[in-house]
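In this supplementary section we document a worked example of the pipeline. Step one takes a protein sequence of length 1902 as its only input; no multiple sequence alignment statistics are reported here. Step two produces a three-dimensional model, which step three serialises into structure tokens for compact storage. The input and output of this example are shown verbatim.
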Amino acid sequence: MARLADYFVLIGYDHDKHGSGDGQGRIIQRFPEKEWEDNPFPQGIQLFCQPSGWHLVLERKSPNFFVAVLTDINSERHYCACFTFWEAVESLQPQKNHTDDDEDSKFVQAPQLFAPKSLVLVSQLDHTEVFRNCLGLIYTIYIDSLNFPLETVIGNLLTCIIPITGGSQRTISLGAGDRQVIQTPVNDALPVSGCSVALLLKQLGINNVLELFCAALTEHKILFLSSSYQRLTEACRALLALMFPLKYSFTYIPILPAQLLEVLSSPTPFIIGIHSSFRAEMQDLLDVIVADLDGGTVMIPECIHISVLPEPHLLQTQTALSMVLDPELEYADYAFPPSSTSASSMKFQDKEIRAVFLRLFAQLFQGYRWCLQIIRIHPEPVIRFHKVAFLAQRGLFDDDFLTKVLEGMAFARFVSERGSPYRPCDLFDELVANEIERIRLEEGNPQKVLKHVKEISEQLHRNENPYPAVAMHKIQKPKEGSHLRVQQNTFPHLDEGTVQWIIDQATAKLKNAPPAVKAEMKCVVPMGPPSATIIDQNGIVLANSARRLEVVRNCITYIFENKMLEAKKLLPAMLRALKGRAARQCLTQELNSHVLQNRAVLDHQQFDYIVRMMNCALQDCTPLDEHLIAAALLPLVTAFCRKLGSGVTQFAYSCVQEHVVWTNLQFWEAMFYSDVQNHIRALYLEVDADRPSETGCDSDEKLQKSALEVAAEQLRMWPTRSKEKQQELIDKEESIVYSQAIHYGNRLTYLLLPLDTSKNRLLRSTAVGDLESVSNSFVTSSIAGSVAESYDTESGFEDAETSDVANSVVRFINRFVDKVCTESGVSNDHLKALHANLPDIVQMHIETLDAVHRESKRLPAIQKPKLLRPALLVGEEQVMEALRVILMPDGREESVSGSLGGPPIMPAEGAIFLTTYRIIFKGAPLETLAGEQTVIRSFPVASFTKEKKINQQEFQDVLQLRSSTFQLMKIAFDEEVASEMVEIFRKHIHKLRYPQYVHNTFAFTVGQSPKQVVESKQKEKNPSLRTMSRNIMKNAKKTIGRQYVTRKKYTPPTWDQRATPAHGDNLDQISVSEEMEQNALTLSTTIRSDKSTMSHMVERACCRDYQRLGLGTLSNSLTRSKNEPFRITTVNRMYSVCRSYPSLLIIPQTIQDSTMQRISRCYRQNRFPVVCWRNSRTKAVLLRSAGLHGKSVVGLFKSQNAPATDPSQTDSISLAQEKYLQAVINSMPHYADTGGRNTLSGFTSAHMNSSDSSDKQRQPKIGVLMKQVMGGKEEMTNTFSRGVLGHRARVITLANPRATTKGRESPQGKWGSIRGSGRLSAYSLNSDVGLRLAGKETLSPKVNGGLSDSHYFRQPRAGLYIIGEKSQLKGAKQDPSQQWEVVPIEIFDVRHVKTSFKKLMKACVPSSASTDPNQSYYRSLEESDWLSQLHKLLQVSVLVVELLDNGSSVLISLEDGWDVTTQVVSLVQLLSDQHYRTLEGFRLLVEKEWLSFGHRFSHRGAQTMASQSSGFTPVFLQFLDCVHQIHLQFPMEFEFSMHYLKFLAYHYVSNRFRTFLLDSDHERIEFGLMYEEKGERKNQHAYKSVWDYIDRLNKKTPVFFNYLYAPEDGEVLRPYGNISNLKVWDYYTHETLSEGPPYDWELVYGRREQVDDGERADTLAPQTQRKIVWPCYDNRNKTEPDAISKLLEEMQSLESELGQVPDKWKETWDKIKTTQRTESKQESKHLSSSSLLISSSLSHHRRSQCVYLHEAAVGSTLNLSLDTDSSTTSTPSSGVMGRKSTSTLYSQFQTSESEHRSYEGILYKRGALLKAWKPRWFVLDKTKHQLRYYDSKSDTDVKGIVDLTEVESVTLGTAALGAPKNIEDKAFFDLKTTKRVYNFCAQDSQSAQQWIDKIQSCLSDA
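The serialised model returned by step three reads:
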């Protein structure tokens, strides 16, 4: 029984404290005034009456009611029912006005204010409606002035006593003519929810409520918002009801007052509700989940991750809730839905929803009682929950949600309240015990689930409403509008004495009444289905094959039978089998069977094998599974032992200590409690055995009882026992706990004390209690002792006395003993005795271990494998001695035999070697089956990028080394390697990786001859003097240059001087001018004379290329033709204008050298525009430069926004730039002919007439490309944006393409995809440029992508397009008179390349295997953005190619001109000019554009200490990857192979050659690298240039040659740039562990030749031709060479055997090609299959057809004509004479199918539609595996194709209706496919049989 209300309080507005900001409330009266002893009055209640604050209002509000919940210090909840109304305030202000001024009083009247007043009931019971009625009655008596004394009503209310539980009804009356019925719940353990849960689902929806439910269970902060206080209370109450049977243990405030909002910043979890008006205060809360009840939303901050319900529970719960809330959903699609499917009422819905969640908890917690550990039964039960066992039994190790729930405070309270085996039971206990099987069977049957939900909901409803509702309520309510009366009295002051007298009277009666005794219905709590049943039912245990378990059993049997040879064979298979859980359990069971009387003595070999198995079983476990295996092995490690000497025994525990589970306090606690429980159970089974059986159950049943069932029986019998017996049992239980504590003290000592007690490192890197598993695989040492170290868990720091092992172990055991004994209720005396004994136990064990350690040292040491020495290059020297290491596996599957097959190669045991060139690992796999193989992994020291130390328990030092050659080494140093040696090794790596000067790199130090030594001495003079002299020279050079510039600056040339040739023209002569003499001072130390320098310059490859392109020659100015548009200038011959440019440059003929010096100042790094390539057909030129300076942009485009500070200077430079650009435009014939004016008439007459129809068709392509690069949309609008007619009035004309559908020319070149990838096209450009280039179609294009036959618009093109950075060109406006146009693009920065490369390396070479599905290989690859950057480069390059091919020159002006500019310029030349696709041409391209034009190889590659901070940025690698992508799409256009690109990618960072060192020609000249003496080049030991090395290697072997090379003259490549067309380069992912990187030819092939010779010499037995090739180990390309390489090798070997001098492979290859060409001309009709490999004609036709067909198929906007009409003829384009169009190629290909015609002839075929028989020419094609048919033999158009892969059968048929006459019956046959049946008729039965046989043979071949 309990009071209905403890206190009644009247609270009003405090007028005395009105002046201080917000108003406050004060308690006017409180009844009773004296506090109850059992329930003190809660303080601060006035804050909760007005949660938004106490405010005066201008209008009288309607009374309101809500219930606030307060929690006291004892966690007891008080329900405060607040009834608030408003009273008029007597204002004093008008009286003051009246007294001061009578005249104003009639006009000035103060507004009437109203103050709130609250009636509050405080109760420990939650009866919301009763409180509402009672307070409403009091208000009604007051407002309507009813004749009932308020004191009597309040007194009766405070003295009303009602039952708390039991389901009874109680009628009460307050003495005002009222009557109410109070219903108590049947069981107060079940929460009472009313309709609050249904209301919450209605407000927020299913998914939002489930998120809140999960958030509350996983202890997140939850905040409810609403404009209704009562709704806030209901929502919080509903969430708590859903959590049943768990109880919320944190802060719970359904209504939070405004003054207490700082509570929201509390660090602990909470459930709080606040008014919506305070929403703005929530902005700073980053870790709070906000649920808006009014808006129906739940906002979860980004930093919060809510663990969700595990599947299938989540889906089942969602489905069940939707069936309850919306039963019509199931029948919504029915044609005839059932008539009555309406949802239940809110009250019943509420219980149904709770039933769904109750079922969910029953499923989540099923079997939980089997994981309760009872430690003590008397005097009070002490119960713990074994979380690891529960998760293991459920198979939910990795489930985040359940793990957090089990670790939460709510579940801890659940265990403490519900763990007891003897207590009252409720609905949840029944569900868990009896309904689990039903729930499992009903899964997937919605109707049965719904039926079960309704059954549970009925029980919940009956708990709240056990009787039918009776309408016995009678409550007075106020009249309508009574609160709005003008004249209202204030609430009267109540007489305290009257109320107190009524309370005293009632209290006296209660004292005399007999006390109410509540009968507790205690019972034994049912256990539910045991854990084994659950495991079997859910199929959690993965079925391990019986064979694996058999392997485990056999191996253990062999060991104990001493059959060691058999055991050794089985051991690798057994260790692999132990990766499965069932095999590990089998191991523990089998070992247990060989233990006799807790001891098993083994010999040394047996001991080693058993220890190795134990270590393997422990190291392969998951962190939680490890506890179970360690628990099973714990008794075994103290049982298995071996004798080391007389009286000295070594146990297995000394060899399995290096697992972190032994330092995990939770593991030891669980083990301790498990053993205590077993002993307690045994104790009471003995006690019961002594007593006569009361129930008559036999002893077998008793033995089967679980510990909890035994405890329940003892608790039931406890009151019946005598006090002496009770004390005896208590003492026995304590002695059990005490003895187990001593036992576990010993066990902890065994597993924590190391064998060598001088060391102390067990707990070095792992905190006690950490669940991280440690890897301890392959422990082969027989004395694999473990060591310990102290660890202070309180402070988190290591102990200072790290050498004192005993103290650290004692402290750890003391913490364990304190914890378990305190929880188990051990007396203080016993605890002190334990602490006193522990040091003695540890000391005794240390003395025992000393003897074991001493004896173990006498054992013969295990033989370590011999170190294998790696092969070194000539001149490569070893820096330090080899260090013995183990190469650990990383995230690549190949090394651990993942998806590729073969045995695991990693981990491998060997040594790490550091040489002046490489870091090399060489060793052998630890895996027995792969032990004979050699593992080599190496990378150049110069490519080393990152080093990382890794902490691993079993190894002292582990290093991870990463290389930019996509290599990673994770090496663990052997225990024999001292830490000092590891540190020296690291320092040597850094010293070699970042030398102080470039001449300290391997390329300079390798194989120096005496002559070079002298040079090096010269370089190694006093470095400070050298640096000083170099700085002086540089400063002098700058000063001279500045004086020259200054002189020009103050005397600018006039227009007349600029028009006439000045003295600058004379600089072209190879003579020394005055300026040259001045500037020559800086380089006098390196270059002996200017004449020799100039001769060297002429010899440079780029000059030869300029002559090939017709861009000028270095000849005498008198003999040079002035008609040449360009010339080679020597203005930069001493690198005075631009240090990073080459000495010879191409500029327009009309531009003077003096002008170039002025122009250079406008560009970054002085890199002014120069010509680097010229289109031989259109004469358009490609220029490169750096980006403009900001002011230069303004000057170039004459923006009116920014006036120049110095007009004369700016105008001069701007005019010089204009003149330069105009000269470039005038160099093109069709622009020069029109007098330099790009008018429409001049443009059309000069250019359009000279272009053929293919040029016109190419126009829209450029527009599409331009728009993609600009980021525009595909669709063109009808009007031109930005004014295509804008600044320059261009006229749009209609031009006839003059191309019919029959004879349309195809564009020249090969096209890849130009369809932009919308997501990745990050360029943003002005779309008008693309529109202007594209023209405009008046009608829609054709389906195949070609233009419609109608006219389309043509726009005149600009003569020069400048591609620049968008950020640099902001605010620039195009001048109307300029003939160039700007294409502003957003290109990635070089920093993005660096970041992208790092991510790419981690994706391709991960350091460890990722378990996170969000970090898969493809996800990481996408996040790296590497392919996206390649896509951008290719897209821009294809655009430039198109512009150049259409006759417009292009200037690439990006960044500093040496990164992205170089990439784009190089790619454009590679795509446009086939010369650069040869070996010689590609070398020339790299030398010209990358080396001469100053790509900063040293800086970007961080080659020296000075550039170390800049980091590694692989710009050149990105270019090579682009070339690789183009090579993949056009494999017949490149003379070099893929290996050539990989070779360059490897050696441009290896520093083996000097080619890619330093940043410019200027630096190379300073270092003497540019022009070496011829004697120096002929060095036999080392090749200084990578090109010389490639030439030599190419003469010896075709490793760099592409056999498919069959170029087409004048071919322009247009590759697909979409990301879907790009492939990840196998250079990034491929590795050959058998020989290391294949890019140092002498090492790989030289070693192979030695091995082959050795094998031939050693073995006289016949050699087999079979060889096992492991994909994860061998190089398949070498072990399985292509046919041509194999044939060339065989030819050479045959020539050698015949005694002939073998020809060079290139000569052999050229002879074969010549022979094949001759044969192909003679046999034009039938081409042999071998000729296809070599001849370029047919293969090229096929390639062209495939490419163009692909474009048409994907719906590209390319305008291609694929006409197959053989009669169509096409004229070659005027640009490239004699070039065949695509339609011609296609036709030729169609007619040349003869080589694929296996069998052909005439057959009659029956039509599918009209069933008519028609003769057709059939061709059976074995190659394509198809049966084609044509109208006639000469026809080239295929009428139909039958795919032979779909054929099911070929059988003889019968004559059908309409068949040809006079044909015998056996001539018919049927071909049945998966789609239809074909009916055929041959000329006679013989030919029919031939056809059947031929088709059958085709089918059998397939």
